[in-house]
Amino acid sequence: MKVNTRFVVGSLMIAVLSACSSSPTERRQAKQDFKYLETQPLKEWQQPTEAKPEFYTQYDIPKGDFSGGVGKEVDIRPPQQVLELIPGARIEEVKGEVTVWLVKEGDVDKLWQTMLTLIEQRNLSLLTQTDSELETDWLKWISEDEDNEFGARYKISRLSLNNRFGFQISLIDWQVDGKQTEVTQANKARYNILMTNLVTSAYDAQLREEARIRAEELVKLIPISMGQDRSGLPVIIARAPYNIFWERLGELLPMMGLEIEDRNRSQGTIKVKYKEPDDEFWQEIGTNPLSFEGSTYNLLLGDLGNRTSINVTDAGGKPVNEEILDSVVPVLAAIIDKSNNMPKVKTTEE
């Protein structure tokens, strides 16, 4: 038997009930003794001859053939739960099998591709593979809460039913310490869910990475133009949301010769001191110099939804004239373009 991949369960669990015990068995079992197993069987209640019994239905014990572990066989660990990482997904658990239902077929296509990429990255061997179903070779699950090393094989399927599109993971073979055996219902559910979370976590990580890339592109592409505020006064308009432009502007202003002395994000204010760059700088970016006449200015940023307005006042709080604002637009646009073309400097944290 060839085992291709080892999964450490502890790294996949998001919420784990920790115990102080060093024994895996004790971590799964209640700390109390099990003397209750020696309790004598219950006997039928004998009513006095003239007594009139009263029964309350809320205390009825359900009837049926129930089976399960008792004593040391009872696992006190919290049950695994499927992580709700996919927007709009509905989770269905039936007899230990997990199905993730999605509304759009394209979402299942993306999830399926994520799963194939995950299999490739972790060097998982496949015994069979089609466009809608595959079976894995044996993989190992190792957990500090277990006394044994478990092996499992999975069948992963794409489903389509009533305009719904699903992704199902089924544990089909089970090993304990290398020996194939029947899987308990508890372990079937537990390790199906762990495998599902492994796939959905990879999918979530992929979505986050795509969002990060889109955000970076959005930060780069910020058109700058002149506009008017609600009262008709001239303002500079940056076509980017306030929170994005605020962060970017803090990097751009020093490149323009505007040293930041103070700023307040909640109020949208930035106090700057202007020190005009040399002629070589203006030749490099290809614009005329700023028309600033003083050394200290205040920038006031306004949140316009998908845009940000920029007002400029002098040291006395008086709005600068339109000529000065006009001079800022091409300089700011050129600095944005220049910063986009600058090589990224890697830090030790990266």
Automatic annotation (TrEMBL):
Alphabetized InterPro entries for the sequence: BamC, BamC_C, NlpB/DapX
Instruction: Please provide an example of a Pfam family that matches this protein in its UniProt record.
Output: Lipoprotein_18
Q: From the record, what ranges are coiled-coil? A: none
Gene3D superfamilies in alphabetical order: 3.30.530.50, Outer membrane protein assembly factor BamC
Q: Which GO terms describe its biological process?
A: Gram-negative-bacterium-type cell outer membrane assembly; protein insertion into membrane
Topology of the protein relative to the lipid bilayer: Lipid-anchor
Where does the record place it?
Answer: Cell outer membrane
Record key words, sorted = Cell outer membrane, Lipoprotein, Membrane, Palmitate, Signal
Where does it sit, as one GO cellular component term?
cell outer membrane
The annotated subunit structure for this chain is:
Part of the Bam complex.
What does the record give as the function of this protein?
Answer: Part of the outer membrane protein assembly complex, which is involved in assembly and insertion of beta-barrel proteins into the outer membrane.
Family under the similarity heading: Belongs to the BamC family.
Q: What is this protein called in UniProt? A: Outer membrane protein assembly factor BamC
Please tell me the species this chain comes from.
Answer: Aliivibrio wodanis
